[in-house]
Amino acid sequence: MRKLTSLAPILLGASIGALLLVTPALADVQPYPASFKTEAVATNGTSLFVRVGGHGPAVVLLHGYGESGDMWTPLATALMANHTVIVPDLRGMGLSSHPAGGYDKATQARDIAGILAQLHVDRFALVTHDIGNMVGFALATQMPDRVTKFVLLDAPVPGVGPWDEILKNPLLWHFRFGGPDMERLVAGRERIYLDRFWNEFSADPKRFDEASRQHYAKLYALPGGMHSGFAQFAAFDQDAIDNRAWLAAGHKLTMPMLAIGGAKSFGPMMATVMRAAATDVTQGVIADSGHWLMEEQPAATVAMVQAFLEDGK
Prior knowledge:
It is a single chain. The chain is an alpha/beta fold. The chain has helices spanning 73-79, 105-118, 131-142, 163-166, 180-186, 190-200, 210-220, 225-234, 236-248, 269-275, 293-296, 298-310; strands at 3-4, 19-20, 37-43, 46-54, 58-62, 84-88, 124-129, 147-153, 257-262, 281-286. The radius of gyration is 18 Å and the shape is globular.
């Protein structure tokens, strides 16, 4: 594989040397700007695929299940003029490695902390979706003084707010779906399994386009992909224990927070959930959208997130 140039001009004055070009996009999805560099970064006993571009204060974008860091292309493109944008694929997803364990969100937060240390990033904003909300929340609890702002998109956090009631929703049966037999059931049928999420959690399934479906289905069909995905959900019980222990100790997050829900998904419930764990929560609702905000209403979502991050508050 050929070398890419150093990230030194864009990494807040840091240099981590030449980067490896990793596999290009697997389908005709919107690419990152050519100025973004990519690297497989060794961190916390695993290796994460990371994209970095832009200049200015750092912002970390964390994706969720059924996608990879590729979901953030429109937002990363909008933010890169005024921010150093850091976009990893989470442990076991996208083009990151698939270790046997470590899918509790506290461990995955340490994955991200390791990347930030290598990039010499001290303070940063967080923008997260779905599983990314859970990893971002764990990261914010581990280093609250370093997170400048926190935007969460349309998914609950284990053990926070009405978590036990949320678990009763029959649409969330996949939280308990996993294990060797389940992996055998979906082997070779990854697209069928994932279509269920993209269809049922959308306000209009047609907005999650065919190119994106093909792209993500191929990523999740990579060796270990579905096993790692199931492990993300299997860790929710431990995540809830960790978060409840943190809350029981009297902690709350104090950085400015924007909790965004799709109007036809979590809606204003996102802010309700996060007010159980944070003191400065702004509510955001994206009209005519389900769970997949960046696919269903990208312009409105980018505008809301960008306005919050660039507000002088």
